[in-house]
TrEMBL record:
Belongs to the RbfA family. InterPro entries: KH_dom-like_a/b, RbfA, RbfA_dom_sf, Ribosome-bd_factorA_CS. Keywords: Cytoplasm, Ribosome biogenesis. This is Ribosome-binding factor A. It is found in: Cytoplasm. GO terms for molecular function: ribosomal small subunit binding. Pfam families: RBFA (PF02033). The keyword Ribosomal protein does not apply. PROSITE patterns: RBFA.
Length: 122
């Protein structure tokens, strides 16, 4: 299966799941969730859906639980909306990239402040 086709399927799944989370899922556990990317296997049997969740660790865990409980519905809907012989098995994963970059930025800001403070003392 061509890489371009896999990328198109990944993008389609990302868009559809984003829309379904926003407009169709009514689970109160699901907070502010953004689908950041989808990684499908070459045979399209499985697709990892990476999500970024705003809030505390507890709210992230609750959002993931809500998404996990909606997996059957989401997969069924993807199957109806996509023209493939096989609908990929979906799994949700927290995308920590944004959190990680925020932490790095804070550390860099602290270093700059420390260097500025040291320069003032000299």
């Amino acid at each position: 299966m061509g890489q371009l086709r896999i990328e198109k399927v990944q993008e389609f799944i990302k868009q559809e799941i984003s829309n379904m989370i926003l407009t169709e899922l009514k689970d109160p556990r699901i907070g502010f969730v953004t689908v950041t990317r989808v990684e499908a296997t070459g045979d399209l049997h499985q697709a990892k859906v990476f999500v970024s969740v705003m809030g505390s660790d507890e709210s992230k865990a609750q959002s993931l639980k809500g998404l996990q409980s909606a997996l059957g519905y989401l997969r069924t809907e993807i199957g109806k909306r996509i023209q493939l012989r096989i609908t990929p098995e979906l799994s949700f994963h927290l995308d920590e990239t944004l959190d990680h970059s925020v932490k790095i930025q804070k550390l860099l800001d602290q270093i700059k402040q420390n260097e500025a403070g040291n320069a003032d003392e000299s």
